[in-house]
Amino acid sequence: MNRDFQLLINGNSRAGSTGQSEPVVNPATGESIGRVAYASPEDLSETVETAARGLREWQAVPPWERGRILKRAADLLRADIEAAALTMSLEQGKPLAEARDEVERSADFLEWGGEQARRISNRIVPSRVAGSRIEIQTHPIGVVAAFTPWNFPMALAAKKFAGALGAGCSIICKPSQETPGSVLVMAKALLEAGVTPSALAVIFGHAAAVSKHLIAAREVAKITFTGSIAIGKRLAAAAGAVMKPVTMELGGHAPVIVCGDVDPEQAADMLVRAKFTNAGQICLCPSRFFVEEGVRERFTARFIEHAKAWRVGSGTDPATQMGPLANARRLEAVARLVDDARARGAAVLAGGQRIGNRGFFYAPTVIVDLPDDAAMLHEEPFGPLAPIIPFSNEKSMLEKANGLEFGLASYIVTNDVHRQQRLADALEYGVVGVNGPLTHRPEAPLGGWKESGIDTEGGIEILDPYHRTKHVSLH
C-alpha cells in the first residue's frame, strides 16, 4: 500500500494548492505507506465557503431522507469492512480484529445518527394569552469544525459526522495527519450514500494553523474536538473568544478498584484485555489499578503472567494480540514514564522496554511500588502500562482515585452490590464500568467530568450538540 491521501472538498479529492505533503508511516515498520496533503489558507477558505453553501443544501433535505442516507452509508461501510480495517491497521497499528470492530462501531454511529434525525421535531407551548401560542423550533447549528485523533481514527470521527449530518449541519473534519485514510474511507461512503458533496469535507494540514483558521471563520458555528486536555483547553479558549460553542471529549486516567471479595484471577483476565487493547491508547482504558490487599498478590501474579505471554506484533498478523504504539512520540512518552518510575524506586515486574528496533513496539508492562509522585500516576499514560497500587483503606484510596483533574472513565470490580453502589456514587467520573470493560456504543451518551470534557456524544442526545432552538411567539 502506497498512496496519496488527498483533501476531500466538495466531493473532489485533490492535493493542496501548494503541493505540500508529509509521509504517513506504518507504526509496525516505521516505513512510509503514502503521503498526506496539506491544505493551504486558500484551500481552507474555499472549504469554509463550500461548507456554508452545503449547510443550506443539506438542511433542506428532509430529516427522514437524511436518516435514509446515513443508514445507506453505514451499510456501505459494513460491506467494505475488510478493506477499511486494513487501511486502519496499516496506518494506526491496531490488530485487524480491533480494526474491524471499529469499522462496525463507526457504521453503528452513522446509522444511529440517521435514526435520531427522523425523530427531530418542533413543539407547541400553550400561551398565557388566549388565541396565542409559542412554537419551539429545532434548527441545525450551522457549519461544524471537527478535530479528531489517531487512536480511534474512524469511530471518533463517526460520532461527530453522525451527530452533525443527522442534525442537518455541514461538517469540516480535520483528522490526525497520521491516520488520514480511515476518515477518508468513511467520508467517501457518506458521499456515495447521497450526502450533499458540499456538506462534508476532510482536510489536513498544520493542526494549529487549521484550527486557528476554522475557529475564526465567521461561517463556522460549532467546534467539536476529541484529544488531550491541553489542546482542548486551547481550542475552547479560542472558540470562547468568538462565542462559539464546543463539545470536548478529552483525556482520561481511569482508576480501577479491585475489591477483596472477587476472584483475582478472573478480574485480572478481564482487565488485561481492557488494558492492552489498542496498546493502551484509549482514553477510557484502565490506567491506575487500586487493588485491595487481600487479593493483591494473586491479582498481580496473574496480570504479570498475561503481560509476559501477550503476543505483540504487526496488526496485520492474525496471531497478534497487541500492535505497536501509533507513533514515535508515544514510544518516547511511554519510555519516559517507565524510566521516571524506575528512578523513583518502582519495580518493573513485566515489560518495561521497547521491543526490537523496527516500528514502535513497547512490551506490555506491569509496575509496582510506585511512589505517589511518580509521573505515571499523574499523566495520562496512553500506552500498555499497568501500575498496581495496593489499598486497605477505602476512603484514602478514593481520595487518590478522584484526586486528579481527569474525570472520564473509572472501573469497579466487586460482587458486593452495596459496595458497587457506594463506589459508583463516590467516583467523580462521567463513565463507570462495573465488573466489565467499557466501550462506547452509540445508544448511550458518553462524556467526561471535570477537565475531561464538555457535553456528551451518543445516545438519544447525539444530535443535541448540533442543534439550536428558536422561540417563535405567535399571536
Give a verbal description of the structure.
This protein has about 475 residues and is an alpha/beta fold. The protein folds into two domains: about 5-250 and about 450-475, Aldehyde Dehydrogenase, Chain A, domain 1 (3-Layer(aba) Sandwich), CATH 3.40.605.10; about 255-435, 3-Layer(aba) Sandwich (Aldehyde Dehydrogenase, Chain A, domain 2). The chain is built from 13 helices and 21 strands. The chain has helices spanning about 40-60, 65-80, 80-90, 95-115, 155-165, 180-195, 205-215, 230-240, 265-275, 295-310, 330-345, 395-400, 415-425; strands spanning about 5, 5-10, 10-15, 20-25, 30-35, 125, 135-140, 145, 170-175, 200, 220-225, 245-250, 255-260, 285-290, 345-350, 365-370, 385-390, 410-415, 430-435, 455, 465-475. Strands 3-2-10-9-8-11-12-20 form an eight-stranded mixed beta sheet, with helices on both faces. Strands 15-16-17-14-13-18-19 form a seven-stranded mixed beta sheet, sandwiched between helices. It has a three-stranded mixed beta sheet with strand order 1-5-4, covered by helices on one side. α1 (about 40-60) packs across α7 (about 205-215). The model has no long low-confidence stretch (mean pLDDT about 95).
List its traits:
22% strand; 39% helix; 13 helices; 475 residues; 8-stranded mixed β-sheet; single chain; Aldehyde Dehydrogenase, Chain A, domain 2; Aldehyde Dehydrogenase, Chain A, domain 1
In CATH, what is the class of the largest domain?
Alpha Beta
Order of strands, widest sheet: 3-2-10-9-8-11-12-20
Helix content: 25-40%
Q: What structural class should be given to the helix and strand makeup?
A: alpha/beta
Number of helices, where a helix is a run of at least 4 consecutive DSSP H or I residues? 13
* Strand portion: 15-25%
Going by CATH, the architecture of the largest domain would be 3-Layer(aba) Sandwich
Distance between the termini: 65 Å
Q: What is the global morphology?
A: globular
Largest sheet: 8 strands, mixed
Instruction: Note the quaternary state here.
Output: single chain
Average pLDDT, rounded to a whole number, is 97
Number of DSSP strand runs: 21
| Total discrete domains | 2
CATH fold node name of the largest domain: Aldehyde Dehydrogenase, Chain A, domain 1
Computed CA radius of gyration, to the nearest angstrom: 23 Å
Low-pLDDT residue intervals, each spanning 5 or more residues: none
CATH fourth-tier homologous superfamily of the largest domain: Aldehyde Dehydrogenase, Chain A, domain 1
